[in-house]
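Hey L., structure's done. Input below.
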Amino acid sequence: MKTSILTQKNVCAFIGLVMAIMIVWSANAQASTLKNDSTTEKTALTPKSNAPESSNLVLELPSLKEEPTAVLINKYGDVVAEFYGEMEEIKVKFSGLFEKCDYITKSGKQSFYLKS
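Output:
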């Protein structure tokens, strides 16, 4: 019986070694890329010394949706309805609906109700 270097055990060990080297190599390459990116971000975020002290920025973001005042959810957690405006006005307009709902919690200006 002749012994051969190309046994299944040797081939699998060689493939495993190559994979380990590739993983270490790609991790080092990715780490150096992240290190270079973080240094450029730091330099980009440093304030300019010749900038005026009191600069007023006005941002107009029309695409942002305001948060609803009252949110009705069903027993599965799906949003059934969202109400915008003052809570007192909403409860007056939809008093029959809110009588059938149970109050759950409030977060900031939002109130959450369970629709039964």
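The mean pLDDT is 80. The first helix runs from residue 8 to 45.

-- N.
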